[in-house]
Design a protein that fits this description.
Shape: elongated
Distance between the termini: 64 Å
Largest sheet: 3 strands, antiparallel
Number of helices: 10
Radius of gyration: 20 Å
Strand order of the largest sheet: 1-3-2
Helix content: 40-55%
Length: about 200
């Protein structure tokens, strides 16, 4: 049990079967630990200590979906372009991503499947409650607002654009180059010109 506790602790609260095997346990041992209620299965091949509710959602995301990128609603909240913490994590994954990997009981997600050619565009790293997660930068997030306009609440959309226009950290040349690549340039410029020129 001590070994198991240490393995899980050293992996940020969630360990893979491979982590146990590397420490000399067998798959059979892991299955038994689960059956006896010492560890809980978070997702196929991933485990946490039983009754461990204090794992941050950010840690679950970092451990189980390291390939994902925080986007749209969650990114807007991260940059302060939206006042309300989303009830679920908005994440982007490549279109080819396995849908079974997205089934995580302890985490509510809203998934955006992105063309591989655009997936890395604007990717950066952000600090979410002390956990490093990939997140799209401000400009990519604003372009996404136009791309997914129909999935967004009007109030959220308008607040995001107005707050971005007033943000001293904005980068308009990146915004325009991303918008061209994502084919939202015309729509975006019509709105942004009004906001930026008052």
């Amino acid at each position: 049990m001590e070994t198991v506790k240490n393995i899980i602790k050293n992996n940020g609260g969630i360990a893979k079967t491979a982590d146990f095997v590397a420490e000399g346990l067998t798959n059979y041992d892991v299955a038994n630990l689960c059956k006896e209620g010492y560890v809980d299965r978070v997702r196929h091949g991933y485990y946490q200590l039983a009754g461990q509710d204090d794992i941050k959602e950010e840690q679950v995301l970092a451990s189980l979906l390291p390939e994902s990128i925080v986007c749209v609603e969650s990114a807007l909240f991260y940059y302060g372009y939206n006042d309300f913490a989303p009830r679920q994590w908005s994440i982007a994954v490549p279109r080819t991503f396995s849908r079974t990997k997205l089934k995580i009981n302890s985490l509510a997600t809203k998934v955006y499947f992105v063309q591989p050619a655009l997936f890395e565009l604007g990717r950066t790293i952000g600090d979410f409650n002390g956990i490093q997660l990939a997140v799209y930068d401000r400009e990519r997030t604003i372009c996404d607002c136009f791309k997914y306009r129909t999935k967004m609440d009007n109030e959220m959309f308008n607040k995001a654009l107005n707050t971005y226009a007033a943000d001293t950290k904005k980068n308009l040349s990146n915004l325009s180059s991303y918008a061209k690549e994502m084919r939202v340039y015309k729509k975006l410029m019509n709105v942004m010109e009004v906001l930026l020129n008052g």
